[in-house]
Amino acid sequence: MAPSFAARTYRDDAVVLRTHKLGEADRIITLLTKHHGQVRAVAKGVRRTSSRFGARLEPFMVADLQLISGRSLDIVTQAVAKGAYGGAIAADYGRYTVAAAMTETAEKLTDVDGESGTAQYNLLVGALASLSRSDHAPELILDSYLLRALSTGGWAPSFTDCARCGAAGPHNAFSAPLGGMVCPDCRPPGSPAPAVETVLLLGALLTGNWATADASATVHRREAAGLVAGYLQWHLERVLKSLKHVERT
Ligand SMILES: [Zn+2]
Known about the structure:
- The protein is an alpha+beta fold.
- It folds into two domains: 5-86, CATH 2.40.50.140; 136-248, no CATH class.
- The chain has helices spanning 5-8, 85-90, 93-112, 117-133, 138-152, 196-207, 210-214, 218-248, and strands at 9-22, 26-33, 38-43, 62-68, 74-83, 173-175, 180-182.
- The longest helix is centred in the C-terminal third of the chain and has 31 residues, at 218-248.
- The chain is elongated.
- It binds zinc ion.
- Residues 162, 164-165, 167, 182-183, 185-186 line the site of zinc ion (ZN).
- Pfam families: RecO_C, RecO_N.
- Keywords: DNA damage, DNA recombination, DNA repair.
């Protein structure tokens, strides 16, 4: 006996992470939902000009969705726009690339970790809203988002006390594998020694101290971005490895 229609239908807020074509007129939409983690769902007829979904299921859009659970893919039956960030973001190439990096990171982090889904959802929607309003420089919004998303995923960096032994900081060496700034005893050979202002900027981006972040100089933003990218790459590779492991077993 099939379960009742009501039991298989659910409603949730979601941000569209990615879409790809399916058949003639449909799309598979990868969503980060507020309460159901990452969901892959089919939007039927969405590529027809007459589609009732309009542009509500484009990347970076936030919508109140109704879905039907399926065996492998769910089906989107209704979409009401909540945050029309997609238009403002897609109109500007710099913002678009930042939003794409954020949604890609969110997809990877929530693929293996369902538990922090709501926190990751709130973080991503907040960052997309901030990006669409140009609250801060796009690269600062990105680096702040990346540091906070990794922290929420369980990889909180330390920019004050030693990331390995906890010795009181500030310290002047950075190690992505060890988790941030490290003391002279823990410092692996060849660790970069970023400028004091760069370390302050990283701390400000992590805690959301925008007054400090907005006042930072370009040279320190560039150095911070390089360290964030290294930190992200190191930890996401571990995420992806654990994902492969999950799929094998
Ligand atoms: Zn140490």
